[in-house]
Amino acid sequence: FALDGHIHNISKCYPTGSSPVNITADANAWVHGAIVEIIPANTINENFDIHYVNISGISANGDYEIKLYQGGGGSETAI
Q1: pTM for this structure?
Q2: DSSP for 18-70?
Q3: Strand partners of residue 70
Q4: If 0-12 CB within 10 Å is exposed, 13-18 middle and 19+ buried, where does residue 17 land?
Q5: If DSSP codes are grouped into helix, strand and coil, which group holds residue 77?
Q6: What distance in Å separates the CA atoms of residue 45 and residue 24, rounded to the nearest whole number?
Q7: Lowest-confidence region among 4-8, 21-25, 28-32
Q8: Of residues 73, 53, 68, 58, the one with CA closest to residue 25
Q9: Sign of CA dihedral 76, 77, 78, 79
Q10: pLDDT per position as a tens digit, 31-74
């Protein structure tokens, strides 16, 4: 289904009309910071996939790794 039934509707931006989500890096290199909820559960009630992530306010001298997770608080799994 993922390949045969993949349909794209109009692109949408989340969050819109609100403050951006802030993610804080860990003080140590290559140590992940705290998990931050970007899209709360049951906020988007239709199938969706992520095409773009806007990242701003970073240092040109830094190295970054961003992990996406799914699941409720305390039971997150990396995707």
Answers
A1: 0.65
A2: SPPPP-PPPSSTT-------SS-TTSS-S----------S--TT-------EE
A3: 77
A4: exposed
A5: strand
A6: 28
A7: 4-8
A8: 58
A9: negative
A10: 888 888 888 888 888 878 888 888 888 888 877 888 889 888 88
